[in-house]
């Protein structure tokens, strides 16, 4: 009798946890999708060079753009993450594909990086590419795509 009661309590606890998880996931996704559907008031969809992109790092409360695998996202809604002085500002204003894929931080963009061709992502492992795809999914849901990265 006692083992049936314990089993029932365990099943009930698991079902409750699952319900809370699903509800939280639904609410977060719904909110994120609604934010992502709002067009960026400052940025029109267009083609961006790396030099143009580099001017959008959030300085003076300006827009924050990040390129990932050829697409440019306005991540200004994530200013607390990507804005000046924040933990992920190193990704702002640049093609962050390789950095995100390898979960690397560097000292920031260099002049040589601006003049180099767009990274073809050669040499990344399957695990790196999987990680990059996860970031693309996150950016697609949370932020507005404002263009394509071009040479």
Present the secondary structure layout.
Layout: H1 2-37, E1 46-48, H2 50-53, E2 65-68, E3 71-74, H3 79-82, E4 94-95, H4 97-102, H5 111-115, H6 126-142, E5 144-149
Parallel strand pairs: 1-5, 2-4
Antiparallel strand pairs: 2-3, 3-5
Describe the fold and architecture.
By secondary structure, the chain is of the alpha/beta class. Helix content is 48%, strand content 13%. It contains six helices and five strands, in the order αβαββαβαααβ. It has helices at residues 2-37, 50-53, 79-82, 97-102, 111-115, 126-142; strands at residues 46-48, 65-68, 71-74, 94-95, 144-149. The relative contact order is 0.18.
SS field, number of helical segments: 6
Along the chain, the helix and strand elements come as HEHEEHEHHHE
Largest sheet: 5 strands, mixed
User: How would the global form be characterised?
Assistant: elongated
User: What is the strand content?
Assistant: 5-15%
Number of strands: 5
Which structural class do the helices and strands define?
alpha/beta
Biggest sheet, strands in spatial order?
1-5-3-2-4
Low-pLDDT stretches: 26-37
First and last CA, distance: 72 Å
Estimated helix fraction: 40-55%
């Amino acid at each position: 009798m006692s083992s049936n009661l314990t089993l029932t309590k365990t099943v009930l606890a698991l079902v409750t946890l699952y319900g809370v998880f699903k509800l939280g996931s639904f609410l977060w996704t719904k909110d994120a999708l609604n934010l992502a559907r709002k067009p960026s008031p400052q940025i029109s969809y267009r083609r961006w060079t790396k030099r143009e992109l580099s001017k959008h790092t959030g300085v003076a409360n300006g827009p924050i753009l990040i390129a990932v695998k050829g697409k440019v996202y306005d991540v200004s809604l994530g200013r607390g993450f990507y804005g000046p002085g924040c933990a992920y500002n190193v990704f702002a204003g640049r093609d962050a594909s390789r950095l995100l894929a390898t979960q690397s931080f560097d000292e920031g963009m260099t002049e040589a990086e601006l003049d180099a061709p767009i990274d073809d992502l050669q040499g990344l492992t399957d695990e790196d590419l999987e990680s990059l795809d996860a970031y693309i999914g996150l950016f697609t849901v949370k932020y507005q795509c404002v263009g394509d990265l071009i040479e």
